[in-house]
């Protein structure tokens, strides 16, 4: 990439290019810059900069082919943002759109079947407290946000997944008091209301979720029973499946690597890939470490299979599936290498196609 960054976002555009926005760079600089990746030339180029520097924002493709960015943390006071902006791939320019009613980061943003965007939960402050129960819906036709039904539980760092019937499942996250949640609830875009659903087998935050057929897979994340003690937080390897017909969760195979704050990418209706993340956290007794292998879950066999190493460790990277089925992973933070700080925030990008390592032999970290 043109600039090293982590805590950024990536989105495939209708013209097959990939838009990357924001994140943190060298010297803790919060980026307003955006870049485009061309999968044909395999080259990066700058495009128009966002109106506001931001990290931990959300970014989603609108039905009209433009891209909506909302919330996050800014680059000056490190305060949560309520601003939103829209990128036009035709012009390469950003324009302001309506501001959310609530500033938030570590929230979710989900495209609803009616073409509107649902934003739910998140934090209103930098330091982990003040989880929100508010939810808002963005109308791309008017550029305005309208508040909708409140969550039953204040939560941040949760997941949101569209169910086959168009409703939205949110699961896990952290509560207003910092505790980890096992609860889930479902939003009905017709009524604008939330209904509580089954509890997960494990409380978790900073996990990932994806729909597989009629079910939802949730995997990884982190948990501690004493959230005030940083070194007690442990990444998880457990996975669960949610059945929307019964509202219940069931255990499925554990991942090969514990990981939190990673990407879960849809390879097909039956398979997902877990990419990057942290397997030990800063402040833990073991010291920080990033997950260096990707792995693939197959819902037909209900197994995770490890793939080859990714060259370098990379936590808080961005990743997308390209139109040809390859996975693009870009940026991230390498907190294992014994290198100067300026070399730990990555500008590297890599491509891989699913290639299962049948031997599962250990692969050392990249340079």
From TrEMBL:
Domain of life, per lineage: Bacteria
InterPro entries: Gal_Oxidase_central_sf, Kelch-typ_b-propeller, Kelch_1
Name the record gives this protein: Uncharacterized protein
Pfam entry (one): Kelch_KLHDC2_KLHL20_DRC7
Lineage: Bacteria, Pseudomonadati, Myxococcota, Myxococcia, Myxococcales
UniProt xrefs under Gene3D superfamilies: Galactose oxidase/kelch, beta-propeller, Kelch-type beta propeller
Membrane-traversing stretches: none
Keywords for the protein's UniProt record, in alphabetical order: Kelch repeat, Repeat
């Amino acid at each position: 990439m043109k600039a090293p960054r982590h805590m950024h976002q990536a989105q495939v555009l209708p013209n097959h290019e990939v838009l990357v926005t924001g994140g943190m760079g060298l010297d803790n600089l919060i980026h307003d810059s955006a870049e485009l990746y061309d999968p044909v030339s395999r080259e990066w180029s700058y495009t128009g900069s966002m109106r506001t520097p931001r990290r931990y924002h959300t970014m989603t493709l609108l039905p009209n082919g433009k891209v909506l960015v909302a919330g996050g943390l800014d680059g000056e006071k490190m305060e949560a943002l309520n601003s939103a902006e829209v990128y036009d791939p035709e012009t390469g320019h950003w324009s302001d759109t309506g501001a959310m009613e609530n500033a938030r980061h570590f929230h979710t943003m989900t495209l609803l079947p009616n073409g509107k965007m649902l934003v739910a939960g998140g934090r209103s402050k930098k330091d982990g407290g003040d989880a929100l129960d508010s939810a808002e819906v963005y109308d791309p036709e008017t550029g305005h946000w309208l508040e909708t039904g409140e969550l039953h539980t204040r939560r941040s760092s949760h997941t949101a997944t569209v169910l086959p019937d168009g409703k939205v499942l949110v699961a896990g996250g952290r509560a207003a008091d910092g505790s980890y949640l096992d609860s889930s609830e479902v939003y009905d875009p017709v009524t604008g209301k939330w209904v509580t659903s089954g509890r997960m087998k494990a409380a978790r935050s900073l996990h990932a979720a994806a729909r597989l057929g009629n079910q939802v897979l949730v995997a990884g994340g982190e948990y501690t029973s004493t959230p005030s003690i940083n070194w007690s937080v442990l990444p998880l390897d457990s996975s669960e499946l949610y059945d929307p017909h019964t509202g219940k969760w069931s255990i499925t195979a554990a991942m090969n690597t514990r990981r939190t704050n990673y990407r879960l990418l849809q390879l097909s209706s039956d398979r997902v890939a877990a990419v990057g993340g942290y397997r030990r956290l800063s402040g833990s007794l073991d010291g920080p470490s990033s997950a260096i292998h990707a792995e693939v879950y197959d819902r037909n066999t209900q197994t995770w299979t490890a793939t080859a190493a990714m060259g370098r460790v990379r936590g808080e990277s961005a990743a997308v599936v390209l139109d040809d089925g390859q996975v693009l992973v870009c940026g991230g933070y390498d907190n294992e290498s014994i290198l100067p700080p300026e070399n730990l925030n990555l500008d590297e990008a890599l491509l891989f196609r699913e290639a299962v390592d049948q031997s599962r032999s250990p692969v050392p970290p990249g340079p």
